[in-house]
Amino acid sequence: MSEERISLTSRMVKVFLTSRLSILFVIASLLSGVLALLVTPREEEPKIVVPVADILVNAPGATAEEVEKLAAKPLESFLWEIDGVEFVYTFSRPGMAVAITLAVTLLGDLIVGSTHEIRPSLVVPRICAAR
């Protein structure tokens, strides 16, 4: 009656510690990993299209707070109104506001045509290439 009950996990560990079969499993795992590395296709520059646009608004002489209030916030709310925009991130610094927009479609003509609705006294926003 002093016989202890050993759990299934303990018995499996005991078998693998005392058996030479575990060495075969390790070697098979390493070989399958090397085979997967050799067979998996790779490209140095994969052709993944992520629709992102960077919009730069120049406001020469304005402080970061003024740029945020006069350009960044109105631009951000304007971008959120566009169908297909999933993410808008803006930041301001003295003389410039930057909006980074994710998942854009037909953004270029829409922004350039509507710039004076945002703030007429600011320089026309520059849309850097949609990445």
Structural write-up:
- This protein is an alpha+beta fold and 131 residues long.
- The protein has two domains: 32 residues; 77 residues, Alpha-Beta Plaits, CATH 3.30.70.100.
- The chain is 44% helix and 18% strand.
- It has a four-stranded antiparallel sheet, with helices on one face.
- A hairpin with a 2-residue loop joins strand 2 and strand 3.
- It is elongated and about 80 Å long.
Q: Can you lay out the helices and strands and say which pair or pack?
A:
Elements: H1 8-18, H2 21-39, E1 52-58, H3 64-80, E2 87-93, E3 96-102, H4 107-113, H5 115-118, E4 126-128
Would you summarize the structure shown here?
Helix content is 44%, strand content 18%. By secondary structure, the protein is an alpha+beta fold.
List keywords for this structure.
about 130 residues, 5 helices, Alpha-Beta Plaits, 4 strands, alpha+beta
Structural class: alpha+beta
Number of strands: 4
Might you state the CATH topology name of the largest domain? Alpha-Beta Plaits
Poorly predicted ranges = 112-120
- Strand sequence of the main sheet, in spatial order? 2-3-1-4
* Rg over CA atoms: 29 Å
